[in-house]
Amino acid sequence: MDEDVLTTLKILIIGESGVGKSSLLLRFTDDTFDPELAATIGVDFKVKTISVDGNKAKLAIWDTAGQERFRTLTPSYYRGAQGVILVYDVTRRDTFVKLDNWLNELETYCTRNDIVQMLVGNKIDKENREVDRNEGLKFARKHSMLFIGMLQILAEIFLEFCCIRKSTTSVGLRVFMGTVQLMVFLTCAGHKDNGCSSFLKLCLSRYLF
Amino acid sequence: MAAEEKGEGCAPKQQEEAEPGGQREPGALRGRQLPEAGRFAYAALCGISLAWLFPENEQSSFRTEFIKGFVKWLDLPDAVLPAMTAFADGLGGEGTETFTEILLKDPILKENPLLITQVRSYDARARVLICRVSWLLRIPLEDLEVLEESLLESLKEQKEEESENACLGFLRDNSLVISLAACSGLTGGLAAPLVAAGAATIIGSAGAAALGSTAGIAVMASLFGAAGAGLTGYKMKKRVGAIEEFEFLPLTEGKQLHITIAITGWLCTGKYGSFTAPWSSMLHSSEQYCLAWESKYLMELGNALDSLLNGFVNMMAQEALKFTVLSGIVTALTWPASLLTVASVIDNPWGVCLHRSAEVGKHLAHILLSRQQGQRPVTLIGFSLGARVIYFCLQEMAQEKDSQGIIEDVVLLGAPVEGEAKHWRALTRVVSGRIINGFCRGDWLLSFVYRTSSVQLNVAGLQPVDLDDRRMVNMDLSSVVNGHLDYMKQMDTILKAVGIKTKECQLEERGSGSLFSPQARKSQRAAGSEARGEENTRKEEAEAGSEALPAGCAHRQNSSSSALREPFPPCPDCSHSTDSKDQAVGKGAN
Question: Most buried of A32, A139, B28, B584, CB within 10 angstroms?
Answer without folding.
Answer: A139
